[in-house]
Design goal:
By secondary structure, this protein is an alpha+beta fold. The chain has 19 helices and eight strands. Helices cover 41% and strands 9% of the residues. α15 packs parallel to α17 and α17 packs antiparallel against α18.
Length: 377
């Protein structure tokens, strides 16, 4: 005999209970049609060029702006949140200039790998109980999870554009289950930032044109993760020792005072990634990089872009003892690394840089690297 669908209330109660057992901290439901405002907001940001060179955002704009453009059969979306609250103040390492600062979310396992399996299990339960079709997404498809999570009552998009939760502050990973089932939507969350502007005021590069708007081209998290070219000169000093991501605007959110440390051990910081020594990171070869970040989201930017970031941090360290590490990369195969190495060496040891300049220019074939020898510091 075919199993009869459960009553909606009983189904939702079972899904909530199973979500909690799987390690999800937040659960809510939004109608697929709950945010008709998204296409206009997305297109305005794209027209302003705030997406930088993330061309995939423009290429997928139609599907990104509407859940039903992505999947016409979707009627409801279950939004799940996993708390990744840190064990210590992530901004403390910014004062240790010989150390690298890694964004909290990247200090352990890649959250995509951790959450997707849990989402699939919960989606499977929904499908078995209701007979409905399901699809799961974890930040790997054109889905605007944050505004949908707001519609589902998980929190609200703060002035820094990140989802803010009363229970978990700015520290929630989001995942979505699209379904053809008609499920009762949760009550949307009202924006609760009030007059606070801490997240805007702390941004080292003034990346927020206005509250609730982000120009990625000025955002350090975009520049040291998504941007594939050299770090623009005007952002190198503000980058400090942020070698992957930037948590400044998240970490100062007052709602974080209610957040607890993540109960998911795989999301807690590895000790070796809480305050890694720049000297050790600058010495990594490609094999060492792959080994150190084998299960980390950091691995996706590759060794060259990672070294670019590390060398900028080396140049910002003020420690002349680190100059030989920059000098050793002047002959690196990748021009991104060579260019960052020149900048770091000129900052830390001008005399040594002058001694290397003519020889380096004589063998340099990449114009952007050559220009690093005369660019303003």
């Amino acid at each position: 005999m075919t199993a009869q669908p459960q009553s909606t209330d009983k189904l939702i109660a079972e899904l909530r209970a199973r979500a909690t057992a799987l390690g999800f901290d937040s659960f809510g439901i939004a109608a697929a049609s709950s945010r008709p405002d998204l296409p206009a907001k997305l297109n305005a940001a794209l027209d302003a060029g705030w997406h930088g060179d993330m061309e995939w955002m423009a290429e997928t704009a139609e599907r990104r702006g509407s859940p039903n453009a992505l999947w016409p059969e979707a009627r409801s979306i279950i939004l799940l949140g996993v708390n990744y609250g840190p064990q210590s103040d992530p901004l403390a390492v910014l004062g240790e200039r010989d150390r690298g600062t890694i964004s909290v979310y990247a200090r352990n396992r890649d959250y995509h790998e951790i959450i997707k399996g849990k989402l699939k299990e919960l989606a499977g339960l929904l499908s078995r109980r209701s007979g409905a079709e399901v699809k799961v997404f974890v930040d790997t498809a054109p889905v605007m999870e944050k505004p949908l999570a707001e519609a589902a009552g998980l929190g609200w998009q703060g002035k820094h554009t990140v989802l803010v939760s009363r229970e978990f502050g700015s520290w929630l990973f989001l995942g979505a289950i699209f379904t053809s089932a008609e499920l009762p939507p949760s009550t949307p969350h009202e924006e609760s930032c009030g007059s606070c502007t801490r997240c805007l005021d702390i941004c080292p590069t003034n990346a927020f044109p206005a509250p609730f708007q982000l120009d990625a081209r000025k955002c350090l998290a975009y520049l040291n993760i998504e941007h594939q070219g050299p770090i623009p000169h005007e952002f190198r000093v503000p980058m400090g020792n942020r070698i992957y991501g930037c948590d400044d605007c998240l970490a100062v959110c007052p709602w974080n005072k209610f957040a607890s440390v993540s109960r998911e051990a795989k999301l807690r910081a590895r000790a070796d990634l809480e305050r890694p020594a720049l000297a050790d990171l600058a010495r990594l070869d490609d094999d060492g990089f792959r080994s150190l970040f084998a299960a980390s989201p950091i691995k996706r930017i590759g060794h060259a872009r990672f070294l670019r970031n590390v060398l900028i941090a080396v140049g910002n360290s003020g420690d002349a003892d680190l100059a030989p590490l920059a000098e050793a990369r002047l002959d690196a195969e990748n021009p991104l690394v060579r260019g960052a190495a020149i900048w770091a060496l000129r900052r830390l040891a001008p005399a040594r840089a002058d001694a290397q300049r003519l020889a380096s220019l004589g063998r340099e074939s990449h114009n952007s690297v050559s220009l690093e020898w005369t660019a303003d510091l």
